[in-house]
Amino acid sequence: MEIKSIHSKEFSRYGYVVEGDFTELLTMLANTPCPKDSIVYKAADDALQTTSDCKHIKNLFGGLEIQIGYCNGYNLSGTGKTEYHIGSEFNLTADAMLLDISHREEINNGIIYASQFETFRLCAGEAVMLYETTLHHAPRSDGENCFRVVVGLLKRTNVGKPETVVISGNGVRMTDTNKWLLDITDDIKGV
After folding, report:
1. How confident is the model at residue 190 (pLDDT cuts 50, 70, 90)?
2. Position 188 confidence tier, pLDDT thresholds 50, 70, 90
3. Most exposed residue of 87, 122, 143, 149, measured as fewest CB within 10 angstroms of its CB?
């Protein structure tokens, strides 16, 4: 598996690197739980949302209402599922981690193949903005350590279930508010 840099030209298809001083947010992130045997996700964390760094992140979303939460833990493999959201996603990592990502245009009738993903490394303290066209799943640990990552999304994303089953034009089901989820399929041999 080739691991690419977020500073490479290949990453520009999926998002961009965000520059800035996020010291306060990273300090607060250090106080969030980080299990060594699972992943914990919190869509909105009050302590993280009160930092002065949030103003900079809100500006990245054009002033729209956002939520700041986290995804922490230990993960060595892809989850078998991938997702996207309407609106971009901000990620700021306190620890080196790997992102497996693809593009929504690769979805065919609700199917995406594992070979259509690329892997990128984020070093500690780096931040990215993933375009809404980017498929992603939970980060992977880069080595033996846990990862801790701030997640910024449009407000109310990943909270609550939709009242009705919604399927997008590309055959993907909405499982939570603004969370479009699909399985990653192993590649079919000989196709």
Report:
1. very low
2. low
3. 143
- The residue type found at 110 is G
Q: What is the pLDDT of residues 113-159, one digit of tens each?
A: 999 999 999 999 999 999 999 999 889 999 888 999 999 999 999 88
User: CA 133, CA 61: separation in Å to the nearest integer?
Assistant: 15
Whether the Cβ atoms of residue 61 and residue 154 lie closer than 8 Å to each other = yes
Distance of CA 38 to the CA centre of its chain: 16
Q: Is 17 exposed, middle or buried (0-12, 13-18, 19+ CB in 10 A)?
A: middle
Who contacts 117 (Cβ-Cβ below 8 Å, separation ≥6)?
78, 82, 100, 101, 102, 135, 184
Q: Which residues contact 159 (CB under 8 A, 6 or more apart)?
A: 43, 44, 176, 177
Q: Which of 15, 47, 28, 42 is nearest to 122 (CA)?
A: 15
* CB-side neighbour CA atoms (13 Å) of 122: 30
